[in-house]
């Protein structure tokens, strides 16, 4: 992998990740952009104890542009985009309309490929491996920022999810705090550790899924994917490396090599869940990594107790119908799942590649 860092016309950082070591990335951003000014602010909810990002400048962000005006495609002639070069393998840049900025963290965009009319599932294993390298490198770099406590790499796909740009891409949020979802996991880790005399919750969950097997969707030598026992979403899969590690940085070469094979197959199966002729399945793919900040408030838990894993789920519950977060889910955070996890796992095994 070759990494080339440059600056856009408004001062934001842009980084090319190339498969070839001899790639030259010296194109200049020719757009007449003024320096980016953001107004992101983090506020704490005194009742729930969680935090909300207030980012009014995002109201003016790009919204469903036509394909020939996509800001994530390479620049071509006088059609200038966020990427100055005429081609790229993988590119990462600071979001022009970030939810988090400055002392409130950082937001980045990850473009998986220059091909507008494709998706992550269509990448080659080499391309998918390069995306993994980019996620890992950005996690390492962002973890060193004083304002960053947790790094979250994720992909939203589909208009049903709320995606406003059709080009295959994901994002990275670098939070200045430990997120509420992660805090819940850390508290559960601490409680399990105390109750079991030091056993690891993540290890016990993975071991149980492997032993029972009914919810296992896909298993490789170094990774296992399963529908969790208490899945929140109709079709939800958790992907774990079999050797527990706290973050992407700690993956060994064997796990990194196998990841593209397993993940690409998983994404292909997601597109087959609802049968032939159906539109691409909308989904969220979310990496959970241990925070880089102190864990003192979580009794006896260290970063090494955490388990890196990816959660992949869709908001579609059946053909032509979405799973909406209604009163119980949105008002009380109590999910109601219409599809038994065992049935979801069976369906995801049925649609395996031939």
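^ Assign residues to that structure.
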């Amino acid at each position: 992998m070759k990494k080339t860092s440059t600056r856009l016309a408004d001062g934001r950082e842009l980084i090319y990740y190339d498969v070839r070591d001899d790639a030259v990335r010296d194109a200049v951003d020719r757009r007449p952009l003024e320096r980016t000014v953001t107004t992101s602010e983090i506020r704490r909810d005194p009742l729930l104890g969680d935090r909300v990002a207030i980012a009014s400048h995002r109201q003016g962000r790009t919204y469903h542009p036509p394909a020939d005006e996509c800001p994530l495609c390479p620049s071509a002639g006088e059609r200038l985009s966020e990427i100055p070069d005429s081609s790229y393998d993988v590119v990462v840049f600071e979001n022009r309309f970030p939810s988090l900025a400055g002392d409130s963290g950082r937001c980045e965009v990850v473009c998986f490929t220059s091909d507008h009319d494709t998706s992550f599932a269509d990448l080659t294993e080499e391309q998918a491996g390069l995306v993994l390298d980019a996620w890992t490198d950005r996690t390492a770099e962002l973890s060193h920022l004083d304002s960053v406590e947790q790094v979250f790499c994720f992909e939203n796909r589909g208009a049903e999810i709320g995606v406003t740009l059709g080009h295959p891409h994901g994002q990275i949020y670098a939070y200045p705090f430990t997120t509420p979802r992660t805090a819940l996991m850390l508290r559960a880790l601490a409680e399990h550790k105390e109750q079991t005399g030091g056993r690891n919750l993540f290890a016990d969950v993975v071991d149980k899924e492997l032993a029972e097997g009914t919810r296992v969707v896909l298993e490789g030598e170094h990774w296992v994917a399963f529908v969790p026992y208490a899945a929140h979403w109709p079709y939800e899969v958790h992907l774990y490396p079999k050797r527990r590690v706290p973050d992407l940085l700690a993956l060994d070469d064997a796990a990194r090599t196998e990841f593209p094979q397993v993940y690409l197959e998983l994404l292909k199966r997601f597109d087959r869940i609802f049968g032939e002729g159906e539109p691409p399945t909308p989904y969220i793919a979310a990496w959970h990594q241990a925070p880089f900040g102190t864990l003192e408030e979580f009794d006896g838990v260290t970063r090494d107790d955490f388990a890196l894993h990816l959660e992949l789920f869709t908001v579609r519950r059946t053909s032509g119908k979405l799973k909406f977060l209604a009163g119980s889910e949105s008002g009380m955070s109590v999910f109601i799942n219409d599809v038994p996890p065992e049935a979801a796992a069976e369906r995801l095994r049925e649609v395996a590649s031939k």
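The helical segments are 125-143, 180-195, 201-212, 253-270, 327-332, 341-350.
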